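Structure first, sequence second, as always.
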């Protein structure tokens, strides 16, 4: 978990991707990795999410692919079995926490409240996804969590964009931020892979 957190801290921004199993998706991921964003969260939100995630893992050198929108232990077990690097959920359930303990896979569970943070800590996790960040009070809420939860680090996700990402990353209890804004739909539609790479490179300077 410690190593995973350090990888996230180094990368600063984790792209959250909903992909179809097609050539464009592979191009998007190659462009991101070229720009230094190796950790990629591929969400289980499309019918072909598993197959495209497998292809990215196998065909995009240096990518570190995680599975997002993990809602069940079946999904988490499948991610472990197929050798994905990490898992992410929008929330947290007792069965997912137990599955994480059994399998040992790196896991970012979603939390929003103080009680959820306490539950995660009781289960040995102190690197958490704050979701949905903007809708839950954004940076003000994260600041308020710093003192009671001094050992907890967050990856805020949800409503983050190029304009507000810096204000999150400047908080001492935030080590990275996640979101879909990293990829511009226009760039994808026009096949501007170099523009995606350039945007990825800018993430390191945040
Ligand atoms: C996620 O699952 O992390 C979010 O849906 C990403 O939210 P965003 O689209 O607001 O970046």
């Amino acid at each position: 978990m410690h190593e995973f957190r350090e990888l996230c801290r180094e990368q600063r921004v984790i792209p959250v991707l909903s992909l179809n199993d097609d050539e464009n998706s592979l191009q998007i991921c190659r462009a991101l990795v070229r720009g230094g964003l190796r950790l990629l969260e591929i969400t289980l939100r499309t019918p072909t999410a598993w197959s495209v995630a497998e292809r990215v893992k196998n065909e995009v050198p240096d990518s570190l692919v995680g599975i997002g929108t993990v809602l069940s232990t079946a999904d988490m077990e499948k991610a472990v079995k197929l050798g994905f690097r990490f898992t992410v959920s929008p929330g947290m359930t007792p069965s997912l926490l137990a599955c994480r303990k059994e399998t040992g896979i790196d896991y970012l569970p979603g939390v929003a409240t103080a009680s959820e943070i306490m539950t995660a800590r009781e289960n040995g996790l102190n690197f958490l996804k704050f979701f949905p960040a903007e809708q839950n009070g954004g940076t003000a809420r994260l600041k308020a969590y710093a003192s009671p939860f001094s050992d907890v680090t967050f990856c805020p996700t949800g409503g983050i964009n190029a304009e507000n990402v810096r204000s999150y990353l400047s908080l001492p209890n935030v080590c990275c931020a996640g979101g879909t804004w990293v990829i511009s739909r226009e760039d994808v539609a026009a096949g501007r892979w170099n523009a995606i790479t350039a945007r990825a490179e800018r993430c390191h300077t945040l």
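Margin note: The mean pLDDT is 97.
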